[in-house]
Design goal:
It comes from Ciceribacter lividus. This is Pyridoxamine 5'-phosphate oxidase. The protein is α+β, with helices and mostly antiparallel strands. It has one domain: Pnp Oxidase, Chain A. Helices cover about 25% and strands about 40% of the residues. The chain has four helices and seven strands; from the N terminus they run H-E-E-E-H-E-E-H-H-E-E. It has a six-stranded antiparallel β-barrel.
């Protein structure tokens, strides 16, 4: 499911949006601050429980996740859906998140976005590691293929 190309994409400086829903199906959106593959069927995302408590609570409650990864320079975008588990992030995972944040700030600054605009988006305060069992991957890049399934656990 997570081939080499997609794995490299999610590890690159891309915006990471985490979609969840509560028990009443009310949507909640948070941001990831670093993602990487664990193997071909699982991935990890660091998220701040301090900044996104509703997202973390929903993941702990029902595990349903739709994580969207979008490159700001050209809007190439993929969405990964699956089931997630949450735990406290370890020191090496937080370090990996820090490297992502530096790369993301650099990428956004090259696009003309000021650091003071970027700073509120990126924190790993009270960091949690979200481990996702990938069920399906969708192309979400604007255009004719947007919304098409790239692959699923059954294909």
């Amino acid at each position: 499911m997570l081939d080499h190309e997609l794995a490299a994409f999610i590890e690159s400086p891309v915006m990471q949006i985490i979609g969840t829903a509560d028990a009443d199906r009310r949507p909640e959106v948070g941001r990831g601050v670093g993602a990487w593959p664990l193997d071909g069927r699982r991935m990890a995302i660091v998220v701040s429980a301090w900044q996104w408590p509703g997202t973390v609570a929903n993941l702990q409650d029902n595990g349903m996740i739709a994580a969207t990864f979008s490159r700001p320079s050209d809007y190439v975008t993929y969405q990964i859906k699956g089931r997630a588990e949450v735990r406290e992030a370890a020191a090496d995972e937080i370090e990996r998140s820090e490297r992502y944040m530096v790369a993301m700030v650099s990428a956004l600054m090259r696009l003309g976005i000021a650091p003071d605009i970027i700073a509120p988006w990126l924190t790993h305060r009270d960091a949690r590691l979200v481990t996702v069992d990938v069920a399906s991957v969708f192309v979400q890049t604007p255009g004719a293929k947007a919304g098409s399934k790239l692959r699923s656990a059954t294909t």
